[in-house]
């Protein structure tokens, strides 16, 4: 146990160094940093048009009011920021590592290869507009629905937000992992991005079978639906249990897939 805690501490220190190096690198080119923020802000404004339409039409989905939908859209916006900041750059680079053979140099590093390849880079600018706007939307919706602001409800919301981050990692890394077997996985990545964007509305907007697939087969809908549902006290016990089990099962599955991918890897340099 003591050894595992020591290993965990070492990896946290290494991750802290990743954050520091990425921050220094991004601040070195401040114009690019500011330009990236501006582009992301423009995308965010276009997404907010959904919110305007929802409020203007007074749309209700399965009993969820426009204020409730604001919490779902806000959670989706937060998770988009988290994904773009923590994982996107790494998953885009992974197929390149396989194709050009740079993975050879990483394999000999004395740390977990999966940790190094999938978490090495962070984008610290792009998430800012999404996270700030997402938190604001959740706060406004929370207040408008008069949900009690208790420690229990906040912890529950944050817990399912954390579960959403783990599930995001496990699902969005899959197209990158398949690059160990296939030359081009861009088409599959596009499909996953499209499924991701389907998360910007509450899941009751979809039919029953799509909801079941989105919760239990490819649990994209868990990522942005379970946290606001938990805060609204509308998450069933079986959904809570699945929300706790899904990230564990997905982490194990990704680890198994990763090990098979590495065994299948042959250096591009021969």
Automatic annotation (TrEMBL):
<dbReference type="Pfam" id="PF06182">
    <property type="entry name" value="ABC2_membrane_6"/>
</dbReference>
<feature type="transmembrane region" description="Helical">
    <location>
        <begin position="154"/>
        <end position="174"/>
    </location>
</feature>
<feature type="transmembrane region" description="Helical">
    <location>
        <begin position="241"/>
        <end position="258"/>
    </location>
</feature>
<keyword id="KW-1133">Transmembrane helix</keyword>
<feature type="transmembrane region" description="Helical">
    <location>
        <begin position="33"/>
        <end position="55"/>
    </location>
</feature>
<protein>
    <submittedName>
        <fullName>ABC transporter permease</fullName>
    </submittedName>
</protein>
<feature type="transmembrane region" description="Helical">
    <location>
        <begin position="180"/>
        <end position="196"/>
    </location>
</feature>
<feature type="transmembrane region" description="Helical">
    <location>
        <begin position="216"/>
        <end position="235"/>
    </location>
</feature>
<keyword id="KW-0472">Membrane</keyword>
<keyword id="KW-0812">Transmembrane</keyword>
<dbReference type="InterPro" id="IPR010390">
    <property type="entry name" value="ABC-2_transporter-like"/>
</dbReference>
<feature type="transmembrane region" description="Helical">
    <location>
        <begin position="67"/>
        <end position="88"/>
    </location>
</feature>
